[in-house]
Amino acid sequence: MKLFTSTTRGIPVPAEVPKHIAVIMDGNGRWARKRFLPRIAGHKRGVETVRELVKSCVTLKVEYLTLFAFSSENWRRPPEEVSFLMGLFMEALQREVAKLHQNNIKLIMIGDRTPFDTALVAQIEASEKLTENNTGLVLTIAANYGGRWDVLQAVNKMQLAAPQLTGYYREDHLEPHLSMSYAPEPDLFIRTGGEKRISNFLLWQLAYTELYFTDTLWPDFNQEAFNLAIQSFQNRERRFGRTSEQLTETKV
Ligand code: IPE
Ligand code: IPE
Ligand code: MG
Asked: Is 74 a catalytic residue?
């Protein structure tokens, strides 16, 4: 497995197109309510947006796309909505995985699978297995994921792996145990739906990510809206702690 240096230990080479985009797909419920539809209709429409975004990322040659599908806090929603989301998840996997595979996309799920139905876990495992040797876009779906959960599970694994180091752990001891150790940290974070918060998504990994918030609701997040996010990213100056002058010096 390739290990990446974290942005607090090393400075990544800047790129025009973000290598890794992480997205909080928010606003499905409001999209539906605006149309006097049940919230679940918004979730259904949201799957279409995912399909389009995956296509755009393949075209742009984005290497990693990470989507927040269900947070560890989303269990607090009404039970009917939770079970609809689980069903939708299962259905989307069954329907889309062959297409993802044909397009050389590698699918990985992060998050705690223990509360999922055995059928869903089996479907997740089969989808990952089918696509594991693909070399195109790495599509990560975060389901029952929480940033705090991720850091804590990594700490527990790190301690088991190297108990002799107690009290002397460094970032590079922890990083291989984080859920996304196979990917560089996100370059661009997008949150649709107007809220300006991280909602316990990738807390460790977003340390130096460029943050982009849009009022567009997830089902309306089309190609044009995505282009605006990319343009915004391209206008950022990523200093990683350095001064602006230092960046211009290195450019010439
Ligand atoms: C995001 O849309 C989808 C999930 C959290 C699964 P929401 O369902 O949060 O939509 P709003 O925020 O209520 O509009
Ligand atoms: C964040 O959206 C989680 C996902 C998109 C999966 P929420 O709608 O759950 O976030 P909050 O509750 O508004 O922070
Ligand atoms: Mg929401």
From this structure: yes
Q: Show the tokens assigned to 226.
A: 């995505």
**How many structural domains does the chain have?**
1
Which of helix, strand or coil describes residue 92? helix
Residuewise pLDDT in 10s, the chain (252 residues): 677 889 999 999 889 999 999 999 999 999 999 999 999 999 999 999 999 999 999 999 999 999 999 999 999 999 999 999 999 999 999 999 999 999 999 999 999 999 999 999 999 999 999 999 999 999 999 999 999 999 999 999 999 998 888 878 999 999 999 999 999 999 999 999 999 999 999 999 999 999 999 999 999 999 999 999 999 999 999 999 999 999 988 664
* Backbone torsion region of residue 36, taken as left when φ is above 0, otherwise alpha when ψ lies between -120 and 50, otherwise beta: left
Cβ of 200 less than 6 Å from ligand 2: no
Q: Domain range holding 223?
A: 20-251
Asked if residue 14 is part of any domain, the answer here is no
Contacts (Cβ under 8 Å, ≥6 apart) of 7: 185, 207, 208, 240
Does 12 map to a domain? no
How far apart are the CA of 83 and the centre of ligand 2, in A? 16
CB 67 within 8 A of CB 84: no
- Specify if 194 maps to a domain: yes
CATH number of the domain that residue 67 is part of: 3.40.1180.10
CA separation, residue 221 to residues 25, 88, 138, 225 (Å): 9, 19, 21, 6
Find the ligand nearest to 85 CA: 1
Whether residue 6 lies inside any domain: the answer is no
